[in-house]
Amino acid sequence: MAKNLLIVESPAKAKTIEGYLGPDFLVKSSYGHIRDLVKGDDAIDIENAFSQKYEVPSEKKAVVEELKRLAKKAEIIWLATDEDREGEAISWHLAEVLKLPDDKIKRIVFHEITKPAILSAIQNPRQIDYDLVRAQQARRVLDRLVGFELSPVLWKKVKPSLSAGRVQSVAVRLIVEREREINAFTAEAQFRVTAVFRVDGKAVLKAELPRRFRQVEEAEEFLASCISAEFKVNSLEVRPAKRSPAAPFTTSTLQQEASRKLGFSVSRTMLVAQKLYESGKITYMRTDSVNLSDTALEGARQEISKAYGDKYHKLRQYKTKSASAQEAHEAIRPTYFGQHTVEGDAAAQRLYELIWKRAIASQMSEAQFEKTSVKIGISTREEELQAEGEVLKFDGFLKVYMESTDEEDENTSEVKGMLPPLNQGQSLELEQMQATERFSRSPARYTEASLVKKLEELGIGRPSTYAPTISTIQKRGYVIKEDRDGKPREYRILTLPTPDKTQSLAKFPEGKIKKETATEITGAEKNKLFPSDVGAVVNDFLMQHFNGIMDYNFTASVEKEFDEIAQGMKEWTRMLEDFYGPFHKNVEETIENAGKATGERELGLDPVSGKRVAVRIGRYGPFVQLGESSEEEKPRYASLRGSQSIETIGLEEALELFKLPKKIGSFEEKEMQVNIGRFGPYIQHDKKFYSIPKDMEPLDIAEEKAIEIILEKRKKDAEKTIKTFEENPDVKVLNGRWGPFIAFGKQNVKIPKGTDPASLSYEDCVKLSEEAKANPKSKPKRKKS
DNA sequence: CAGTGAGCGAGCTTCCGCTTGACTT
């Protein structure tokens, strides 16, 4: 039996470490935290110095029992959890739950999973740092108090089951405020002048006027003044430039880059990364550190020299910028730099490749350029046109990796190419000059990944919680991730043309400026985060009553206090008292005094009936109310649709909603009706529902069109049907998305492997259905009734 | 896959951070 039991947080880590240590060591994992505050409201005794009641959750019982058993037999228990606040607390919980006496405990830490690092850690054990543990308890207690006092206020004042918390509420705030900025934004038009010159008879040199024109007349005047102008190179400047690689990935930068380059959601990224980690391909994927271990630096150096040559290597040590970083792990990197690709599904391969490239590139030399700026004089004007070119002299890290950006600014997205050979004073022949109307752009909506970036900048949340936070705010219905169509927008283009390419512009007959309008699509969004009305109402409520918690600096300021506790400079109960006193008073006052938050907005009067029209949120979401509630008459209600919001909807648009449901004639002697449901517009006919294609306006659908849609759907259903039964029309064998299955009334029944769906009899279906009923899918739902 | 939206009251919801399964449609 091993004399030593070493406990880490992650089982994958445990497996690796076991290989480094001899048979005297048994290495096990705690699977993260083993205890948490009890579920209900009595977890924290506020009167009694915030003393906490912990319990081992049921899914952790087996782990704890096993560790208990092993700890009993071991002489020394090495607590090797992560070197941060949470890790220290896990060690303390282990000591408590496993009832480990102080003289059997040795607390050790290491930042990289290598044999020398672990052996050296074992040479330098310490005891549990209780100040750090208290800092964690303060963090845990504060989060529970905030979450479990604030959420019930929302249940009373907005609607049940909502939630609020130190992290999620600020995440929602960012999205709500950004949406309002976008709504308040008015695009300003400016004319941007570009010119193309011919050099040696070829149209090659593109230049731009640095200044923009607000008025179309100014732009026109500028172009007109260029008609008979001569152009020449006023100055030519060549200077070297270089670009350095980005640091290796942290959780947040990996999520951002995987979103931009691979289109992964943050949760998908984490799922795939977890698999790569478990199979030993990459280091730990939940980290805020950009640091690489010495062995990693050496591994990267060797690989770069081997694959690209020594001159491509440059040793770089990165420093983590974020003040909130706890740096218990390395940056995310491949375990072995020699392995350029991995097996597995496409997602794993692509994510690995991204991680490998980024980590390798981070140890490579700069890319070197030669930048040329040209200023072109116009004989008739003071202004100069500018052209810029770039030549790559040495690719350096660009050989493997190029970081992408969120902003695809039209001014920078044009790849700067090489310029033709030019001399100072050289005359240039104008091919074409254009003034194009361009519009200023509103701030960008958040994607999941750009929200993570922002949260990290604010020091809010941790690598392990970015993905869960984003799914929480969506699950609560505060935020919706979706695509939205853009709107067409016209813009003007003024062109100075040369009708005949051989003819110079000066000779162009009347020098007429061609004016055109073109159309572009603006405001189209893909996978962006939009606030819901509930999100906005909850946000405004919290902003009004709990300003302190909603402050972007709240986390940063409590973190500072947690640090002071960790350093033994501050009493943790004192910190909590100072926070909780005023906070709790505020909660009570708000419950007492605040009215219901509905976000109600009056839109005006219905021109037809003269009744009041108002929007607000209710139990079932945002809706319009037409008329007041009174003895004689009830108001009419209509739910808002799709992307409509109580904040932006207008009177006319709101009244449109009362045109539905609408009867549109009959078919097969049954009435048809159009309406809009949870999944979009549909036609209802004979108790059945037929969804209306996305590109059709439900209000425009007439009898004929509706019948067409019904028949279409019936045809499609018939194609999907493999078999029906005379015994019971509710039972069918259908071809589904995942293959054939039995539709048994409302119940879907799987067909066992190896069974030919076409050969099933009605009796078989009944039998299979009953079997399925007898073995219901056990959902891993935590609960007790 | 509709509609509903008053008010009562029982019993429920809820936080953040650390980990990995066992679930399938």
UniProtKB/TrEMBL annotation:
Q: Hey, where's the site called Interaction with DNA on this chain?
A: H33, R139, R140, D143, W155, R286, R476
This protein's record includes keyword Secreted: no
UniProt xrefs under CDD domains: TOP1Ac (cd00186), TOPRIM_TopoIA_TopoI (cd03363)
Tell me, which GO biological process terms does this entry list?
DNA topological change
What's the catalysed reaction? ATP-independent breakage of single-stranded DNA, followed by passage and rejoining
Q: Which domain of life does the UniProt lineage start with?
A: Bacteria
- Region feature (Interaction with DNA): 163-168
The segment(s) forming the Toprim domain are 3-113
Extract the GO molecular function terms from the UniProt entry: DNA binding; DNA topoisomerase type I (single strand cut, ATP-independent) activity; metal ion binding
Keywords from UniProt, A to Z, are: DNA-binding, Isomerase, Magnesium, Metal-binding, Topoisomerase
Q: Which residue ranges does the record assign to the Topo IA-type catalytic domain?
A: 129-587
Active site residues per record: Y284
Q: Answer whether the UniProt record assigns the keyword Acetylation to this protein.
A: no
* EC numbers for this chain: 5.6.2.1
Alphabetized NCBIfam families for the sequence: topA_bact
According to its UniProt entry, the function of this protein is described as: Releases the supercoiling and torsional tension of DNA, which is introduced during the DNA replication and transcription, by transiently cleaving and rejoining one strand of the DNA duplex. Introduces a single-strand break via transesterification at a target site in duplex DNA. The scissile phosphodiester is attacked by the catalytic tyrosine of the enzyme, resulting in the formation of a DNA-(5'-phosphotyrosyl)-enzyme intermediate and the expulsion of a 3'-OH DNA strand. The free DNA strand then undergoes passage around the unbroken strand, thus removing DNA supercoils.
Its subunit composition reads: Monomer.
Q: Which family does it belong to?
A: Belongs to the type IA topoisomerase family.
Q: What is this protein called?
A: DNA topoisomerase 1
Q: Which organism is it from?
A: Anseongella ginsenosidimutans
- Recall the taxonomic lineage recorded for the source organism: Bacteria, Pseudomonadati, Bacteroidota, Sphingobacteriia, Sphingobacteriales
Record gene name: topA
